[in-house]
Fold this sequence. Notes:
The chain is mostly helical. The chain is built from 4 helices and no strands. The longest helix is centred in the N-terminal third of the chain and has 14 residues, at 9-22.
Amino acid sequence: MSQSIEIPDHLAASLAHEAKKLGISVNDLAIRVLESECHPVPERKTGTQVADLWRAAGVIGSRSDIEDAQIEARSLRRQSENRGRG
């Protein structure tokens, strides 16, 4: 789809300068900028943030039948590794 927009001269100059620096066309740079603005990459979360989210969602602590998570994880890993070995 072809689309035309009017942008201020200083912004056009900045786009041209940055595009030249990156070795791409102004059009390609404009597309990159628009894509990153319209479809931003989600911010990465730390392990603590993920654990807090899981805790809030009830995932952490949801298996009261498992006394030791590390032992359970090792057992599941062994089962997975031996799957299909009749």
